[in-house]
Amino acid sequence: MILPIVAYGNPVLKKKAKEITKEYPKLDELIDNMWETMYNAHGVGLAAPQIGLPIRLFIVDASPFAEDEHLEEEEKKQLQNFKKTFINPTIVEEEGVEWDFNEGCLSIPEVREDVFRKPQITIEYVDENFTPQKETLTGLAARVVQHEYDHIEGILFTDHLSSLKKRLIKGKLKAIEKGKIDVDYKMKFPLLKKRR
After folding, report:
1. Which residues are catalytic?
2. Which range marks the domain in which residue 151 is found?
3. Cβ neighbour number for residue 110 with a 10 Å cutoff
């Protein structure tokens, strides 16, 4: 089932999410719905707060980036099958010199900005079967995971921008809150009662 994606301005996007247990109601169904919702919106990641749930869960499928001809073969290989579910994750280490990349977000449509992040992370989490995992990720895989991880920490990519950049996009963000944008996927706007 395709769920509406919560738009910028909704308080759930600024909340630190809570851990869940194996007994979380209808977890498998929720994860399936998140995949369907993400693919319908042409995203590469989706966090539970983006569908209104303040829980530590996000999904990532970075395989579309594997098509990028600017990437090294090794990174393309890493991205090709990079489809994962992260439950109760903790980034235990971030390393390297920060690099910038143009990011967007399904909750903040039509806004894209360069964000600086570290190139390598080590993350611990449990997968959809609650099997413990620990991985070190680099490049775009690390970046996509950092972006989604921010969501469960109550941080948006716009929070990483300079105060000047924030001022420049303020009007666009207000328009998103009011639902004054055109998107081709279901959204829930904080300052609008009914839309799509």
Report:
1. 148
2. 5-188
3. 12
